[in-house]
Structures are given as C-alpha cells and as structure tokens.
Amino acid sequence: MSAQLAILLVHICCFTVSLFTVFTARALVYFPWFADHRDYSLSALAPLSVSVVQADKTARSSALQFYGTILFCILFFGGFFVKSYLEDAIFQRDTRRLLAYYKRSVPGSMHDGDEHSARYLVYKYRNKKAKLWARLEKKYGYPMPEDWDAFVKEVEEEPKAAKAGTAKKVEEDVSDLDKEEKEQSEQGETKEDEF
Predict the structure, then answer these.
(1) Could you give the C-alpha distances from 188 to 37, 156, 175, in angstroms and in order?
(2) Which of 118, 125, 140, 173 could form a disulfide with 98 if both were Cys (CB 3.0 to 4.6 A apart)?
(3) Spatial CA neighbour of 155 closest among 109, 111, 113
(4) Phi, psi of 36, deg, nearest 5
(5) How far apart are CA 15 and CA 88, in angstroms?
C-alpha cells in the first residue's frame, strides 16, 4: 500500500475536527471540510492537499491570531475601564476639595454644602483647574491651601469635633441642671422641716 490513511482528532476550542493525513512521498494533509465527505479516494485528496509544514504554519498563525485578538480586546477595553475609573476618582477628589474650600472661605453661604453646583463647577473646569482655583481665590480672598489632603481632612473633621463638643456641652448642662434640681429639692425639704 503506497499510502496510509490515519484519522487524527484535533480539539480546537469547542469543535472537534477530523484531520485526515496522507503520508506519501510528498507528505500531504487533507482538510475534509473543503471537500465532499462522501469520497475519500486519493484522487479526491490530491487537489485539496496542503503540505504538513504549511498546515503547521497555518495552525500556528491561527492560534497566534486568536490569542492576539483576545489580548488586544482585554487591553483596549481594560484601558477604557482604567481611564474611566481614574477620571471618576479625580472628579470626586476635586468635588471634595471645592466643598471644603467653600466651607472654609464662605461658611453658611449658598455654596457651602451644595454638592450639585460643586460637581458642575468641577466638570466645567475639568481641564482648567488652575484657572478655577485662581478665580475662587480672587473672588473670595481666601488663599489656596498648599496641602489639599490635610486641608480637606481638617475641614471634614470640624463638624465631628463640633458635634462631639456640643454633645459634651449638653451633657455638662444636663448634669448642672440635675445638680441644681437636687439643691433646690434639698433646700425645699429643709424649708418644709422649718415650718
């Protein structure tokens, strides 16, 4: 027998492909999906044959193209995800800075605590932040802090300290009232004893 036929099953992703190889002097590979599956004679194999080396190159380039496409998609869409995440983090940070600046420079004003207008201003001046800070400094006359993180933390801690101080003051007032009531009740008892 001048040629031997062997069936080799190749698993690519989820598909099972039958690969018929013809080993002759020229070493050919036959791909059955290009031909009529009913006729497996050697004469039918010859016109659609490809060399083993060419089949190996094609398989390698197909695998590289597949994995390259997956890598490209991950990097492309992942890059947009990272960019979006960073822009949102910077937007939130600048909004906190602007609200802290308003709370310190114009306390009790319409802008103090107005997150909506602060977000709008940060969005409007998103590529011109130096211009925004310069205009605010000129308008309100309050200097820009050197260390923004410490400034924001300090301003955010003020209400907590004020609440703690108010709670302590209320407790002191209540204890003072309790003492006064006790003294009055004791004085009232002594006055009743005198009658």
Answers:
(1) 115, 49, 20
(2) 118
(3) 113
(4) -70, 130
(5) 43
Q: pLDDT tens digit string along 55-105?
A: 888 888 899 999 999 999 999 999 999 999 999 999 999 999 999 999 888
Q: Domain residue spans in the chain? A: 1-47, 92-169
Q: What is the mean pLDDT of residues 115-121?
A: 92
The β-bridge relationship of strands 49-51 and 15-23 is unpaired
**Which tens digits make up the pLDDT trace of 9-33?**
334 433 444 444 444 444 445 555 5
d(CA 22, CA 45): 8
Torsion 34-37-39-41 (CA) sign:
positive
Starting at the edge strand found earlier in the chain, the sheet holding 15-23 runs 4-12, 15-23, 28-30, 49-51
Exposure string of 65-81, with b = 16+ CB inside 10 Å and e = fewer, is: eeeeeeeeeeeeeeeee
Q: Within a 13 Å sphere around the CA of 36, how many CA atoms are in the beta-carbon half? A: 7
